[in-house]
Design a protein that fits this description.
α3 packs across α4 and α3 crosses α5. The strands form four sheets. Strands 3-9-8-7-4 form a five-stranded antiparallel β-sheet, with no helix packed on it. Strands 12-11-10-13 form a four-stranded antiparallel β-sheet. The chain has a two-stranded antiparallel ribbon with strand order 1-2. With about 240 residues, the protein is α+β, with helices and mostly antiparallel strands. It is about 20% helix and about 25% strand.
Length: about 240
């Protein structure tokens, strides 16, 4: 299936979720995204400054159909249960003070659904952490220009010319990663290469692997690329195209 960014858009907070393509297997009780990649953010990844910036702008909201598609069918009821910190008698409470609730948000900048997953041991001093799931956009907003790429702890972000931070656009089945010779670094290099060729303009996710520029691919495959937090400006990427 092909798509045009004007037809398939998850990045318009004014109009909501437009033409979201859902893949379902009714016999298995499964539903999920067909084009937009699902992004899993583990608790240990939430300490990065870019994640904290993104988290700080999320807005609590009531669950909707896209939130339900982000969790297993058996976890859908937990989207509607309060946290144990809000209601000690919540169905998601475990043995009094533990918790396995879900919390739903939307991103007001890009219109994306987000589900927070709580895991709290009962009692004091035990594990009490949140992880998150969301969808990556298929492209930045039509009037945005890519300015800078950020990565840290295997999370990948785009900064627009207006300063807004977005999860890097990603197509389902083409996950990004760093530091080895394989599909993840190649998919990332291909997308960053296309952004550089487009002068930071609208660049739908899903650039073919063979379009990865050798210099950008060498960077994404290097072990140094994911040490700490790394940034590449649009100018840095375009300089790599000329190397």
């Amino acid at each position: 299936m092909t798509f045009e960014p004007v037809d398939l858009n998850l990045t318009d907070p004014e109009k909501g979720y437009l033409n979201f393509v859902l893949y379902t297997e009714p016999s298995r009780g499964f539903a999920g995204a067909s084009l937009n990649a699902e992004v899993d953010i583990e608790a240990q990844q939430t300490v990065t400054p870019h994640f904290q910036e993104w988290l700080s702008r999320l807005v609590r909201c009531e669950p909707n159909a896209l939130h339900c598609a982000l969790v297993m069918p058996t976890d859908i009821p937990r989207l509607f249960h309060p946290c144990v910190t809000e209601d000690a008698s919540s169905p998601s409470a475990i043995r009094g003070s533990g918790c396995v609730c879900r919390r739903t948000f939307h991103d007001p900048e890009f219109g994306l659904p987000v589900v927070g997953e709580h895991f709290k041991h009962r009692g004091e001093g035990g594990t009490d952490q949140w992880s998150y799931k969301t969808y990556a956009p298929l492209a930045l907003r039509p009037d945005d220009v890519f300015s800078r790429f950020h990565t840290g702890r295997s999370l990948f972000w785009a900064r627009t010319d207006k300063g807004a931070l977005s999860i890097l656009p990603q197509k389902n089945g083409m996950g990004y990663s760093l530091g080895y010779s394989g599909g993840g670094p190649t998919a990332l290099a291909a997308y960053l290469s296309q952004i550089a060729r487009n002068d930071g303009g609208t660049t739908p996710a899903g650039t073919p692997y063979e379009d990865a520029h050798p210099a950008i691919l060498a960077w994404t495959q290097s072990k140094a690329a994911d040490r700490g937090t790394n940034e590449l400006s649009l100018g840095d990427l375009q300089a790599m195209l000329e190397s």
